[in-house]
Amino acid sequence: MTQPLQGPNQQMMAQQAAVQVMSNGQPVVSHRLNELLELVKQEFVNVSNEASTYLMHKDEFDQKMYAQHMSALQHMRQTIYDLEQAHKKVKEQYEEEISRLKQKLEAASSGQATPANVPQPPQLEHTSNLFNNGMQGRGQESNGPTQPGAQGQPGSHSAEQRSFTGQNAPQLPLPQVSQQQNAQVPQPGQAQMAYAMQPQQASAAVQPVPQQIQPDQKPPVERPQSTATADGSASATSAPSAPAATAAPPTQPGSGPTPQEVAAQLGNNLTSLDIDTLPSSQVKRGDGYVVVYNEKAGHHLDVDLLHSLEHDSVVCCVRFSQDGKFLATGCNRVAHIYDVQTGKLSCRLEDETASRENDLYIRAVCFSPDGKYLATGAEDKQIRVWDIATGKIRYLFTGHEQDIYSLDFSQNGRHIASGSGDRTVRIWDMETGQCIQTLSIEDGVTALSISPNGKYVAAGSLDHIVRVWDAQTGTLVERLEGPDGHKDSVYSVAFTPNGLDLISGSLDKTIKLWELQAPRGNKVVSGGVCARTIIGHRDFILSVSTTPDARWLLSGSKDRSVQFWDPTNGQALLMLQAHKNSVISVEPSPMGSLFATGSGDCWAKLWRYYPRSESTSS
Where is the composition biased (Polar residues) (predicted)? Predict the structure, then answer.
């Protein structure tokens, strides 16, 4: 018999009975699946934990390796630095010994002194282009800063970074002289600051360019017919000029002693003394400087160092504010303002919009009489007048065709005079921003000064002449030249406090005092006479100035010394040796008692000068 058909419910129950075995109310297959899933989950957790552990170990290992790597790198850096310092020291000693031997050889060959009597001043390395190499950072031969006291200088940057092309021609912020006659001077972008002047080829304006010169090598000065390069060398087609004289010409027989004889009688040979053999009463040694007193003059004056201010490049100029509280310095691209009392940097002025393709040395700085503004003149032919409080450019004067080498504010603060390698002196009106006078000459303008009453402007030039103009009319009222005039380019001029006299310094190694009025009571500048020729420096004179009481004259030279002089007789009172490169700028404070120096060794220094009685001279 066949089985009867089952209904749907009965079939379902049969299927469930066939595949299910009940255990605690749960199907066996479902229970096993849950166990497997739990095992997978546990394995995943274990793997995750292991991965986290591995990552943690890896991080610790990486940190340990990084620390070891940095430690090794730091050790390598320190080793390299120590080697560099040792190399610099050895190089400095080597170069100084070469310099010492050179001086002895020069002295022996010239018959001026025996080797034992040759001066041994603290020196920088002798480099050829004070401004050529120097303008490019610290110069190709720069040794970098040394430790305080090394070679008599608290830090040096050897290569004379303000080039003086030619061997004996300092290159002021003007045209420059090359080491060989008719040699070409590098163009402005190649070397930036030259203090001697030498012709270049091309262009049509005098454009100063830097070049280095050996300490006692006399460069021929060529008269540029057009541009002066950024460093003081003249660029353009140039005609050869007579070689520069090294001293004032002798007077006619029977007319009295020559300037050289007068200098010898006064004891102005301080740069030719052997400092190591001088008695202690004639020498004072400070931290990085030496003062040598003129025994024939007596100890009437003394000098102390207050602050040493290191810069990243050649210090082309220094200038005090009228109240004497601040000092401004000009170097590559930047003007700095320091607090005189503390020596701390209070302001840094840089035009970020200026082209950075080449160096841009600031050759001149000048505070406005009220101290609110600082004017700067540079290689890009522009005069920037900075608002010191905001650090922003307030005025921008354009019009010069070559580098600007000198600036001066009038006492009323309204006018600025500027001197340029383009052979012009220009007078600018601060209120209108216009050039109100353009005074043209035959050669590049290296230096200028406005008289205390603001009526006259004096300028020194590459053509050996000092000129004086009426500032209002532009009339030339005086040409200071002739047999008693300078025999080489004039790099510095300054009015005396009374406004009646003028002092000038030249590549001919002389300082001249000019009486601008004859008779003295006349208020009109006329009949200028060279009242005195001062000799004593061994190399180009780059900066001259007078203390505010007119009691002393100061001068800075390529021979790396600063000297104080008695203007009444031209006698040297003392010689200060503190820089390892040319002393480019010397400036007394308008308030008295202080003066500042700027040098190619990338240092500016603040000094105190004061009268010294004979009783304390020992």
Answer: 125-143, 156-169
